[in-house]
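Worked example

This section walks through a single chain of length 191. The input is the sequence exactly as stored; nothing has been trimmed or padded.
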Amino acid sequence: MTMLCHKIRHALILLVFCSTTASAYTLSFAPGGQTVTLGNQASVSVWVDGVLPGGLGNYDFDVLFDPAILSFDRATDGVGLGFAMGLGTTLDMGQVVVSDFSLDDPVALLATQSDRILLFSLVFDTLAVGRGALSFDNATLGDVEGNSVNVNATALGAIDVTAPAQVPEPSGLVLLMTALAALGVGRLKRR
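Given that input, the structure is written out below as tokens.
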């Protein structure tokens, strides 16, 4: 009897653990890491996974970035919330606060969503060479009914900014030989 109770208790613990793990919505950056040349722009998308069965009806969180390396340029809505208020962004030093709220009927909204939803894309200008780390903070998400859901917002991203490639200068010997060849061609043409 004790062995049966022990197995049942382990099964219940496993069931509770699996159900809480599966119910967490996960925020992530795509690509998680990228390299761009100084002076070029970098774009990163923000996705949420694990949305079903409850769906996603709203979100509000911060995307943190290094303002010494990156400068926020713009955000583009992924329209994953259907008919919505529209992506709202507020810029502060080193962070972009993003939010949206669906106005769709919960049943209709849920019918259009998959388990993975593109929330939005961010574009950054590059300011200096280095690693511009990206992270999430203050994440609040709600299902299609407006109920708060568990959020895993620990994923990190990075934009590595590199210096432009240096064009090698021709050596002095190559320049001297080119000049002598040009003089020689010029003399032949005169004759």
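What to look for: DSSP finds three helices and eleven strands in the chain.
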